[in-house]
Amino acid sequence: MDTGDVFDPNCPTRVVLDRIGDKWSALVLLCLVGGPMRFTKLRERIGGVTPKVLTQTLRAMEQDGLVTREVFAEVPPRVEYALTDLGHSLHGPMAAVATWAEQNVGQILRSREMHS
Amino acid sequence: MDTGDVFDPNCPTRVVLDRIGDKWSALVLLCLVGGPMRFTKLRERIGGVTPKVLTQTLRAMEQDGLVTREVFAEVPPRVEYALTDLGHSLHGPMAAVATWAEQNVGQILRSREMHS
DNA sequence: CCGTATCCCTCAGGATACTG
DNA sequence: CAGTATCCTGAGGGATACGG
Where does the record place a coiled coil (chains A, B) (predicted)? Predict the structure, then answer.
C-alpha cells in the first residue's frame, strides 16, 4: 500500500479524518475507552445528541470495525457498545490531538478574536 | 489543565477537530510543512480544490493563527502562505493520526466491505 | 497570478413523535 | 430501553464566470 498519496481522496488520512472529524465519533470513542457502555448511558454522557444521530454514529463506527454492538435478550432490553482492539488503538493518536488542543486552543481562540 | 470537558461544545478537542476535520485544512497543513508555498502551487498539489474553497480554507487557517499570508508587490503578483509556529506544532499530532491511518486503513476498508 | 462573485445542491445533523 | 420514522434546515462545498 502506498503511504504517500495524501492528496488522493482515498488516502488513509482522508478516510480516518472523515470518520473522527464528524460531530460525535470522537466523543463516543472517548466515552468507550473507559469500558463498555449502553445506549442510554452514552446519550447521557454525550450532551445534545439525539437518538437518531447517535445510532447513525454507532452504526458507522461498527461498520468500520471500531466498536462492537452486543444485544442482551433481557427485559428491559440492554445493548452494550464497546471498543474493538482497533478502536482502542485509535485512542493514542486521538489523545495526541486532544493534548495539543488543550495546550493551544487558547491561542487559537485569541487569534480568532483578533481577526474579527 | 482540565481534560474532562470533552463534552462541552466549546471544548478544545471539538474546536481543533472542527478545523482539521474539514475537507482541505489537513492537506494544506501537510503541503506547508515543507516550507512556504504560493497560491497556485497549492492548487496544483491539492487536486480538485476550487480557488474559492482554497481561499476559504486559507483564510480560516489564517484567522486561527495557523498560517501567514504574505503579499509581494510584484508583477505578476505573488502571494506566499507559510505555517506559523503554531501551525508547525500541529504537525506532530497530525502525523500521529496519519501514521495510525496508514497502518490501519486496510482493516477499516475490509471491515467496511464485509458489512455492506 | 490571485483571487471574487454567483448560483446551486447535497447531506450531515437536528426536532419531534412514535414503537417493539 | 433502545431504538425508527419523518420532516426540515443550513452550512460546506462545487461549477462557472469574471475582475484587479
Answer: none
